[in-house]
Task: structure prediction
Amino acid sequence: MMFIVSLSNTQIILSESSLERDYWPTDGWQHSTFEEAGMNEERIVEMFEYIEENNYAVDSVLIVKDGYLVVEEYLTFSSETLHPVYSVTKSFTSTLIGRAIEEGYIESVDQKILDFLRHIDVPNIENKENITIEHLLTMTSGISWNEDISYYDSANTFRQLVDSSNWVEFVLNQAMEDEPGNTWKYNSGGSHLLSAIIENATGISTLGYASTHIFSKLGFSSYFWEEDPQDICFG
Result:
């Protein structure tokens, strides 16, 4: 899980022409009134009333039209609040895999994960010799995993992962229930292995690698990335 100040936790409504502007997504948005934007203020007010009446978990609402910020309301948090983005983190991790391939740290998505993780000493590691990075990216590793039930259910594999003392070892020690590439199954553990691979391949923490190749490029200035007991960033 990752905490980051960005627009990813916000309901943003963009008109097509706004994409031509060059001053976003910084805090330098130019503002516009409802009248100037040609928008119906009463309907916007109704929207906020509807959100409140139905107790929807909306953190904030930004409405941008023609490149101008018309509405900026924070209902739960301020614009400076660090907020968990959960599985959005997987997009950062997968992007960093691509960057590591571009920089030559990883040969390709066809490279076997044990090229980076064979040093992990668990009983069931050898039967995972055919799993590639692509299998982790596409969640088709074949590793037995059950994340589709309530997190509070003791049978939830992700909860077991979080409660374990070594996350990478825990994932690699799970049984194989299918050949890699055959079956899709949502698996946050596999995504965490990607983070371990990034750190092993580059010699840089996933956070440090992301800071250089993603966050600085997008103008993110305040963020925090949680780590497992071995100080590997949550994949």
